Fold this sequence. Notes:
GO terms for molecular function: carbon-sulfur lyase activity; metal ion binding. This is CENP-V/GFA domain-containing protein. This protein is mainly β. The chain has two domains: about 5-145, glutathione-dependent formaldehyde- activating enzyme (gfa) (Alpha-Beta Complex), CATH 3.90.1590; about 175-365, Metal Binding Protein, Guanine Nucleotide Exchange Factor, Chain A (Beta Complex). It is about 10% helix and about 30% strand. The protein has an eight-stranded mixed sheet with strand order 5-6-7-8-4-3-9-12. Strands 15, 16, 17, 19, 20, 21, 22 and 23 form an eight-stranded mixed sheet that branches. A hairpin with a 2-residue loop joins strand 19 and strand 20. The chain starts with a strand and ends in a 9-residue tail after the last helix.
Amino acid sequence: MANDTRAIKATCLCTAAAHEITLPASAFPFKAIFCHCSSDRHSTGSLCLGIAVLPPEYKAPGAWLEKLQSTEFSKRITHYFCPTCGTMMLARLGGGDGGARWDVCTGALEQIDGVVEVDCHEYIADTVDGGFSDFLQRVDGKQVGRWSGEPGQGEQLPLYWQSSSRPTIQPSPSDKLHAYCRCKGVEFWISRPSKRSAMGKAAWPDVLHPFDSPAPKPKDAVWWLRAGGTKYLAGCCSCDSCRLATGQEWIEWAFVPAVDITLDEAGQVPFSREFGMLKHYRSSEVATRHFCGGCGATVFWDGDERPQLLDIAVGLLDAPEGARAESWLEWRTARLSYREDALPRAKGVTEGVEEGLRGYGKRYQREPQDAAL
């Protein structure tokens, strides 16, 4: 019938900002775009911002917006996130009530399959190295568009594109990697791995050894150091908690010892869990999530069982060689962490990311991808 409607629920991790979006059934599926611009990476902590474009007639109700904190992304774009748990939920493009376009973050939606249709990546040129676009090449067998900048303008970039100006990095023990959110209410620096980075051991994460695996659990180890101790491990997580905390389909984590993090570039101010505009939300009985109270960017995942080690949101990193920070990080490509959470609601993009990770690993990774490394 012409007046048939369909509802889809969007929610944050704490559920305080949950809302049901009701639209004509003909408005579905929404077009999904993954933006790789530098500002969106630092606004979310993820390597890209995934949004579903809502129809022109949609206007976010005031009752929903009252539950969210707004942050001015640019003169024409406003982001909205939950001030309690940090979930990025909405974006408004355009000024005032008239002519504005509303986007909802895909990770906040209860369902993706049948609700959104992935269209393209945009602003890949900002990544220098291709960023996450190389991890998501196809969805349901369909190639995802790869725009250098604004979709429909400029050029589409090939798979595994890298900027011709991408520098070749010669790592030095004195290097510092700057990490910061978009508003710079949170910023810190990371040192290269050293002997002190290997102090202590920890239980293996799901990205290396699935928690539901019937195989014997490996003994605690220094698994976060890779490439002969010269890089930190990085991986992608799609668990429901990470998805809802960020508003993104996945979050990329780098596993870094607290001893290798300082609050100044000179390395004189040691790491603290209370600094700048950092806020925290206790997401489970064993973990705390940290985000910027100014712009909503995800910053850390902090597990009680390994206080010496932090999961750092890779989208915050400002590595000259590109968004993937490949001179600092070795990417785990054999597993998308907690894929079991993602498959029931987002089978297409989940399997697409798994395929892309394997392709990237085959092309670039030199070490074996065994869980028992």
